[in-house]
Amino acid sequence: MSPRARILFVALMLLVAAVCVRLGLWQRARLIARRAGNAAAQHARQMPPLDLERAGIESLADRRVTARGSFDFAHDMLLRGQVLLGAPGVVVVTPLRGARGDSAVLVVRGFVPSPDGISVPQLDSLGEPGAQSISGIARAIPARTGRGRPLLRDGRVTWKELELDALRGELPYPVMNVLLFATPAAGQPAWPRRLEPPPLDDGPHRSYMLQWFGFATVAVIMALIALRRRQAAGWSEPTAASTAATGPPPARLP
Fold first, then answer.
1. Is residue 60 packed enough to be buried (19+ CB in 10 Å), middle (13-18) or exposed (0-12)?
2. Which of 10, 67, 156, 209 could make a disulfide contact with 52, Cβ separation 3.0–4.6 Å?
């Protein structure tokens, strides 16, 4: 490798290391924020349960709540591309009307197997008719993520991820800003299978942080190796001038 190419390589490796460190610090900041949010969520889950009809204006996110009303099966929604115990399927989300005045609360009724992960022909037979009392944990619905991508399949709207702004445009009545994960109860049908809310863990941020810092370390090591090879070449490669100065070896006398 020529001296110029070696210098360019070292500069490139240092630039790569700087970018990787910056990305690692970004993931570290997201990890810290997630852990702070998890601590707040854990505290909220330990508080006494709320009756949704009597709840005040306090935040309902991550609170244990009970809602009463009737399911609006005409506006069932499916979260497509879900997996449970290795089986593909969908998660059924249904508005519960009468839960709080004229507003509905979206209830995660549970998981249903689906070979293509998007359609459930037997969904109409999985209704839970009549007055319902649903208990569970409420999770906030993000206003906008850019990952919702609603699609119409077999007369039903399927979502990759729920977005509050888009949902309010789809439903003909007000909807609350939380998603209620229904917990199992006596007399509940086998399907949809009730689900736990998303776990309060570190998510991918810790592994991503370590990955970026690892890439930065590798880049710095490669730059150091290139520099050491340059130094070794400077000491070991003889120059033409030094070779000429020494001259040919002396002839041996008989």
1. buried
2. 67
Q: Exposure pattern of 147-160 as b/e (b: 16+ CB <10 Å)? A: ebebeeeeebbbbe
Backbone φ and ψ of 62, nearest 5°:
65, 15
Best CA proximity match to 49, nearest among 118, 129, 124, 136: 136
- pLDDT (average), residues 220-245: 66
Q: Look over the chain and give the mean of its residue pLDDT values, rounded to a whole number.
A: 82
CATH code given to domain 49-182: 2.40.50
Of the ranges 17-21, 182-186, 215-219, which one carries the lowest mean pLDDT score? 182-186
Positive or negative torsion for Cα 31, 37, 43, 49:
negative
Judge contact between 220 and 174, C-beta under 8 A: no
Reading the block at residue 214, the tokens are 């690892």
DSSP assignment of 70-118 equals EE-GGG-EEEEEEEETTEEEEEEEEEEEEEETTEEEEEEEEEEE-TTSS
Closest C-alpha to 129, from 144, 149, 111, 109: 109
66-96: pLDDT as tens digits? 888 889 888 888 888 888 888 899 999 999 9
Alpha-carbon gap, residue 206 to 211, rounded angstroms: 9
Parallel, antiparallel, or unpaired for β 156-159 and 175-182? Answer: unpaired
Q: Are the C-beta atoms of residues 68 and 125 closer than 8 Å to each other? A: no
CB atoms within 10 A of CB 67: 26
What pLDDT shows up at residue 25?
96
Give CA–CA dist 160/79, Å, rounded.
6
Task: For the chain, give every domain's residue range.
Answer: 1-46+201-231, 49-182
